[in-house]
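Figure 3 (text version): structure tokens given as input.
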């Protein structure tokens, strides 16, 4: 069987005009596959009969649809004398088959690929090609309420694991003929379908070509989630910061498309990728645009402050209490000293113990079922934290610092981005424990320099902080979210000449 494939894991055999020869190849390809359904039929014609052969995968195919739209018309409603100038193939294609989504295929490899994707292939004796009938019926969960990016206002639906459902949810929101959907396959064995969605008149020249180039850069066995493809497309593989924005919300993906960005959806993955991306976008939420501008701006202020706290508070506490205690007010210094009077470990060890305990509880809460996970997070944190304080392992001040840091990390709307802050928190703890506030500032400076050199498909990661002079209008959707009526231009990375997105028809 392996002789049928080339080094690219593609079939190197051609479709034969003899159905029996094609059946031999199919039997060899799908030997031992109990879910493969194959059946031969005969069409009785005047003084002759022709053999047909159908093949599909049970569980991925709508059997009833095949029977009603193909088998019944071809086998039981065959019209002998109708349109005699058509040959058998044309008669099946144009007259008998009662389905719109049917096409011809001359490649055996693409025929098998279609069958593996849930379509039905039909071979006709005497013709070296096949009919591919769209009959997919995947076992998918229904479109449910978004539970990873929940919001008080806005749509509640979310993407699921079906790529066609994902594209349909975006199509439902953008009813524009300029919305393009480029489809492809990635993974030599998984053959995972992906779709790149973008507005043809808004996307920057070269962006789609660059995305396709990165997708096709590697030959890999399988892609099972958008996260795997994201890592392959990231040209800064050692950087913890993502250059794609991930989302499960169709409204957020549609908003990105009309801003000139590209959305990449993968089959079997409920999260889509959005590019280009910058630091500011990862701290934005859909609620910012559905609420009044003052409410949205206040929420963004909270998130920026939370992001700063999530990465700096433990390190700052270590730096001040260990090296610069004279900076603290006397009463606060006495309170910290009193809380640490029975603690036997140094501050750095004390902090690492509590941070490790929190990360352990968080990981355990994710792996356990929903209600039990919430219980272990709350009860485990209270009981273990209180016991650690009473045993003199940690102080109450450290418990407060770690808890505040954890709460701040939960305020970041993008989970992938929040994980980066949780990781870099330990880097700031390390630099602060080495050199106090000098190490604290040095750690922040290293992170800032790293952020300033990152680009996401040519867009600076820290825009508009480091590129504010390009267009001052960009700052209207930064920390301060201006009213919608004043956000008249699209971001600077869209195609030139198409930046206006809002016009006031009532203004002279």
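Below: residues designed for each position.
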């Amino acid at each position: 069987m392996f002789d049928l494939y080339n080094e690219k894991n593609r079939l190197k055999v051609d479709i034969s005009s003899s159905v029996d020869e094609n059946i031999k190849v199919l039997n060899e390809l799908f030997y031992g596959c109990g879910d493969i359904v194959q059946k031969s039929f005969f069409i009785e014609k005047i003084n002759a009969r022709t053999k047909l052969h159908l093949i599909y995968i049970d569980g991925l195919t709508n059997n009833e649809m095949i029977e009603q739209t193909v088998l019944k018309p071809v086998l039981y409603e065959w019209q002998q004398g109708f349109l005699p100038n058509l040959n058998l193939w044309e008669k099946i294609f144009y007259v008998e088959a009662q389905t719109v989504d049917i096409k011809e295929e001359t490649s055996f490899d693409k025929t098998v690929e279609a069958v593996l994707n849930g379509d039905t292939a039909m071979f006709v004796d005497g013709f070296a090609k096949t009919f591919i009938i769209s009959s997919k019926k995947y076992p998918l969960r229904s479109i449910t309420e978004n539970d990873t990016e929940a919001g008080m206002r806005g749509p509640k639906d979310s993407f699921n694991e079906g790529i066609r459902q994902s594209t349909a949810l975006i199509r439902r929101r953008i009813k524009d003929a300029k919305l393009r959907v480029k489809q492809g396959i990635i993974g030599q064995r998984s053959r995972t379908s992906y779709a790149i969605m973008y507005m043809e008149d808004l996307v920057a020249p070269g962006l789609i070509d660059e995305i396709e180039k990165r997708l096709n850069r590697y030959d890999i066995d399988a892609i099972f989630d958008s996260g795997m493809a994201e890592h392959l497309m990231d040209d800064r593989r050692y950087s913890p910061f993502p250059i794609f924005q991930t989302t499960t919300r169709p409204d957020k993906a549609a908003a990105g498309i009309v801003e000139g960005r590209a959305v990449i959806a993968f089959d079997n993955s409920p999260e889509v990728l959005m590019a280009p991306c910058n630091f500011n976008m990862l701290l934005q939420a859909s609620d910012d645009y559905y609420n009044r501008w003052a409410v949205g701006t206040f929420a963004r202020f909270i998130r920026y402050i939370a992001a700063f706290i999530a990465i700096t508070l433990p390190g700052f506490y270590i730096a001040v209490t260990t090296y610069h205690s004279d900076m603290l007010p006397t009463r606060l210094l006495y309170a910290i000293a009193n809380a640490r009077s029975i603690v036997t470990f140094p501050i750095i060890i004390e902090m690492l113990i509590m941070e490790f305990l929190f990360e352990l509880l968080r990981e355990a809460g994710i792996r356990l079922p929903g209600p039990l996970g919430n219980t272990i997070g709350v009860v485990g944190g209270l009981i273990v934290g209180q016991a650690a304080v009473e045993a003199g392992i940690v102080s109450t001040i450290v418990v407060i610092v770690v808890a505040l840091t954890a709460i701040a990390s939960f305020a970041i709307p993008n989970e992938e981005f929040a994980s980066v802050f949780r990781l870099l928190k330990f880097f700031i703890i390390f630099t602060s424990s080495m050199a106090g506030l000098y190490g604290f500032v040095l750690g922040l400076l290293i992170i800032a320099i790293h952020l300033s050199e990152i680009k996401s498909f040519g867009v600076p990661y820290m825009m508009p902080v480091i590129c504010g002079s390009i267009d001052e209008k960009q700052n209207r959707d930064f920390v301060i979210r201006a009213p919608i009526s004043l956000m008249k231009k699209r971001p600077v990375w869209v195609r030139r000449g198409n930046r206006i997105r809002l016009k006031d028809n009532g203004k002279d």
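The longest helix spans residues 415-453.
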